[in-house]
Design goal:
410 residues; mainly alpha; 4 strands; 67% helix; 6% strand; cell membrane; ABC-2_transporter_component; ABC-type transporter activity; MFS_trans_sf; transmembrane helix
């Protein structure tokens, strides 16, 4: 009976803390904007910005100094690729450079004078390419388009030379391609930047908006001489766990809904790959959102002012994004940055989400990331409890000192 009474009291205290935190959240307009406007709008905004994930028919200028039939064929083949469109044929490089500076073209292909003669003499010929490096996609398109045409030209030249030497078509085919292969890129066939980028950034939004909202609320409380760690008198200092879990439940409930929208609905809106079941994504969210809650509690405890959040926004967001390894393999990270990335739940959750949603990995394949999130939950929960204990102890000490000062004055 005593145990049942304690359990009932614990649940009652937890529920009152949960309701109190919800009131704090919904009474702060800034937190509401971050949670519901930013949390719901950012994924759609990113999706709209990167909706056209590929750059097709990128305009380029060709400087054909050779004027041979081979160089004209090379130019036609460039124009026939999906990546490139020969918008200008220039007489010299200064004219092409002027077009590049005026942003009328995004790249230049220069075919030298001796191109046709070298091919006729069975010597190696060169073609020079110049890309607008204001965007990596321009460089990628020019490089891929030019390489495709060069490989095609090489096969045709080899075929002609072997045929002229008396080889049969079957022998020529074996010599040119001794091992047959098929190119297959199952996860991003069109090299779409939206698949490459959005799959990583979607889960970052969950962590960042939650952390900024919690930190803003914590900073506001401290500016108003309140605290996130105030324990009701009936707890008698033993209510730390129910305080943390009660507060956490409020954010967990809100962000499970936001997370489901971000991870399951937004990809469908923008045609991103969804190669795993909703159940698998939901299980990942259970661990990820829980880790984000206690992560936010731990690091928001050091926030003293509301405006500090906006400084952190500029610093943390790009760092967290690149630490997911979406643009650079994690195996190539320096040791410091690899260890530093373990601080953030988004590092593991984004990797698991990309593997599951894009590559069709199962939950068992994402087990290492889920185990890492579980460890983070345990560690950050303990740190959150310590933060509440320390903050509450400091509040009691300040209150006792203030009362003593008042008594001394009287």
């Amino acid at each position: 009976m005593k145990n049942r009474t304690y359990t009932g009291q614990w649940l009652s205290d937890w529920y009152s803390t949960f309701v109190r935190e919800l009131r704090h959240i919904f009474s702060d307009s800034g937190v509401m904007v971050i949670f519901f406007l930013a949390g719901l709008a950012y994924p759609v905004l990113y999706g709209l910005i990167y909706m056209n994930g590929t750059v097709d028919d990128m305009p380029i200028a060709v400087v054909d100094r050779s004027g041979s039939s081979e160089s004209r064929q090379f130019t036609r083949d460039l124009d026939a690729t999906r990546e490139l469109h020969v918008a200008y044929s220039c007489a010299d490089m200064p004219q092409a450079e002027d077009l590049l500076q005026k942003r009328k073209v995004k790249g230049i292909v220069m075919i030298p004078e001796e191109y046709g003669d070298r091919l006729a003499e069975m010597r190696q010929a060169t073609v020079s390419t110049y890309a607008d490096m204001s965007s990596f996609l321009y460089y990628k398109n020019l490089t891929m388009g030019a390489n495709q045409v060069m490989l095609k030209e090489m096969r045709e030249i080899q075929s002609e030379r072997f045929s002229a030497a008396g080889y049969t078509p079957e022998q020529v085919s074996r010599l040119i391609q001794p091992i047959r292969y098929e190119e297959n890129m199952p996860y991003n066939r069109t090299f779409s930047y939206s698949i490459f980028f959005l799959s990583a950034v979607l889960l970052i939004v969950i962590q960042q908006t939650m952390f900024y909202g919690v930190s803003m609320l914590t900073g506001t409380m401290r500016e108003e001489n309140r605290s996130f760690a105030v324990l009701p008198d009936r707890f008698r200092g033993r209510g730390i766990s129910r305080t943390v879990l009660g507060r956490g439940a409020a954010y967990w409930l809100i962000y499970m809904a936001i997370g489901t929208y971000v991870a399951a609905i937004v990809p469908r809106l923008f045609g991103l790959p969804q190669n795993c079941s909703f159940g698998s994504i939901f299980v990942l969210l259970l661990f990820y959102v829980s880790a984000c809650v206690v992560f936010s509690f731990t690091f928001s405890s050091i926030i003293r002012r509301r405006e500090t959040v906006f400084v952190l926004f500029l610093f943390m967001s790009p760092v967290c994004l690149f630490l997911t390894g979406f643009s650079w393999p994690v195996s190539s990270f320096p040791t410091f940055w690899k260890l530093f990335s373990y601080i953030f739940p988004s590092t593991f959750a984004s990797q698991a989400f990309i593997n599951m949603n894009t590559a069709g990995a199962s939950l068992s394949m994402a087990a290492p990331q889920i185990v890492a999130l579980t460890i983070q939950i345990a560690v950050y929960y303990l740190l959150s409890c310590i933060a509440v204990f320390v903050e509450n102890h400091m509040l009691k000490s300040r209150t006792a000192q203030a009362r003593q000062s008042i008594s001394s004055g009287i």
